[in-house]
Amino acid sequence: MKTLVIVDDEPSVLNGLRSYVDWAGQGIELVGTADDGDAGLEMIKELKPDIVLTDVQMPAMDGIRMAAEVRAVLPFTKIVFISGHNDADYLRSALQIHAVDYLLKPIRRKELASVMGKVTGALDAEARERNRVKEMQVKLAQSLPLLRERFLLSVISDRIHPAHIREKLEFLDLTMLSASGYIVIVIMIDDVPQVLDTRSEQDKQLLSYTVLNIIQELIDKQMRGITFEKQPGEYVGILLTRQMEDGDTEEAEEAQSPEQELLLLAESIRDNLRQWLKLSVTSGVGEGVSSLPELPSSYKQAKGAADQKWYLGKNRILSMDKLESAEHLRYRYEAEWSERVLTALRSGDRERTLSELEQIFARLEQNRGQGSRYAQNVSLHLILQSGQVMLELNGMSEEWEQKEIEAWKQVMRQETIQDLLQYTAAYLQEVCDYSRLKRNGKASEVIERVRLLIGQRYSENLSAADIAEGVYLSPTYVRLLFKQETGETLFEYLTKVRVEQAKNLLKDPQNKLYEVCYAVGYTDPSHFSKLFKKITGYTPSAYREQLT
Questions:
Q1: How far apart are the C-alpha atoms of 54 and 373, rounded to whole Å?
Q2: % of the chain beyond a pLDDT of 90
Q3: d(Cα 188, Cα 231) in Å, to the nearest integer?
Q4: Contacts for 117-122 with beta carbons within 8 Å, 24 or more apart?
Q5: pLDDT for 103-118, tens place per residue?
Q6: Long-range contacts, 424-428 (Cβ 8 Å, 24+)
Q7: Rounded to whole angstroms, how far apart are CA atoms 148 and 449?
Q8: Where is this gene product found (predicted)?
Q9: How far is Cα 156 from Cα 416, in angstroms, rounded to an integer?
Q10: Nearest Cα to Cα of residue 26 among 45, 8, 55, 51
Q11: Average pLDDT over residues 512-525
């Protein structure tokens, strides 16, 4: 409901408007009346009404002057004038102070209702607009972090126009980025897939928030600047430096250089993230620049330095001046490399396979201009070729095909060339083991060892890894070899052994059914009963009954 104050020096008009108009029916509450401009102004300032209905001509302070003072302190209050037919000059003055409407005496109820309807409608419309603006301001405030991040991304990505930098800094409350010098640092979490893949989305966001907070707190403590997350696992810090000028004191000259400060900051970031979050990070440091539009070059240098962990290893602080210059592509992959690896695989020689791989990767390590991609392609080629050996030995089972597909994925996730060498070597040495046993005719010996182990340990909660460990081979290789040599899987054979042992135990009526279940390696009697029936055609209890 809108509030109304009436000011008029004629008692009859004031009394009529107060007593004979149904204000409530028009959605208006009459909160006060006054008989002159002075008293009316004080009342209006106190009550702050939505609408003021005032006479034009009044002694002492007239309606025009009163309205002007009201407008100065209550700009949203609507003013409607009451005027006689001879008050044309006053009405012109009323229009100049933006009165919303006027009524001529004598006042007619229908005309009064019409004018008040327009006034309340205008008030409602303005209130809606103010609310909309407030909502937009709230949404804008909520989106400021995202807008800042987008702006910072544009700053390091060559997408910012120099003419609009100052305005954007002020709008985004980033005026602290106005400086005479900048350096970029890139902090990359090592082994990002392993760090992030096992976490829920909530945990990933919490980790990102915590990492950003730690980095920003250290920046605020040791230098000045701002940090943001460019992509999962990569954080960028834009750091402010002060360039030395002729008038600087000896104390300033003895201070550490921006590069030294930055390296100390990078060490603090590395040490704190390792201490508090158990994270290993590699940091790259760019060169100093003198303006924001030059930041992309500093970012590229910092990112390029951090990417050199592919060759130099993880958990390091790298800057461009530490990197060796290198030719674009010093060593190209030669067909003879593949032939030597294939020969080692076919002979089942683990040591020779590893030696050939180490020689290949030692050469690839010198191809600094190609980064990780060239070495990854070589690794994929070797894994694909090892599949040729498995096909020759009739070992390309569905399980091995899945292992090969997973290997292609894992190759692309390795973060250093040494990681890639270790992963590729482990994969190819499994092929070596398979090749050696197949060609030496020792596969049957492995199968017998597996059967002996299962016969001795069937009552345990055996996994493929347990069985493989017991015969000193990899789980994948043992599953593959056992299936190929016997025609049944490891767990089909294990289940068969357990069921045979269960049959023997069921012959003794003293053995309870759940005791038999536990004795042959199962923890769930219901699951055991289903397996037993699947193989024998009887439930354990029915099998015991038909024995009697």
A1: 82
A2: 49
A3: 10
A4: 117/26, 119/51, 119/78, 119/80, 120/2, 120/26, 120/27, 120/28, 120/51, 122/78
A5: 888 888 899 999 999 9
A6: 424/357, 424/379, 424/382, 424/383, 425/353, 425/354, 425/357, 427/383, 427/386, 428/341, 428/345, 428/353, 428/357, 428/382, 428/383, 428/386
A7: 64
A8: Cytoplasm
A9: 25
A10: 51
A11: 92
Residue 468: what pLDDT? 87
Per residue in 367-420, pLDDT (tens digit) is: 766 667 888 889 999 999 899 888 888 888 888 888 899 999 999 999 999 999
Which residues does residue 34 pair with via DSSP β-bridges, in sequence order? 7
Q: Between the CA of residue 57 and those of 21, 42, 67, 100, 266, what are the distances in Å?
A: 22, 18, 12, 18, 77
CA dihedral 271, 277, 282, 283 (to 10 degrees): -70
Q: Which phi and psi angles does 471 have, rounded to 5°?
A: -115, 10
In contact, 174 and 182? CB cutoff 8 Å = no
What local confidence, expressed as pLDDT, does residue 169 receive?
A: 87
CB-based contact 87:56 (threshold 8 Å): yes
Q: What is the pLDDT of residue 423?
A: 95
Read off the pLDDT of residues 202-215 as tens digits, 9 standing for 90 and up: 999 999 999 999 99
Average pLDDT across the chain, whole number: 86
Question: Tokens for 475?
Answer: 């789980």
Core vs surface per residue 399-420: b (16+ CB within 10 A) or e = ebeebbeebeebbeebbbbbbb
Read out DSSP for 335-403? Answer: HHHHHHHHHHHHHT-HHHHHHHHHHHHHHHTT-GGGHHHHHHHHHHHHHHHHHHHHHHTT---HHHHHH
Q: Residue 390 has which token pair?
A: 């498995």
Q: What is the pTM of this model?
A: 0.61
User: Considering only CA atoms, which of 230, 214, 234 is closest in space to residue 222?
Assistant: 214
pLDDT for the residue numbered 123: 93
Tokens of 177: 């980025």
Helix (H, G, I), strand (E, B) or coil at 125: helix
- Of 7-16, 49-58, 74-83, 322-331, the range with the lowest mean pLDDT is 322-331
Which of residues 164 and 74 earns the better pLDDT score?
Answer: 74
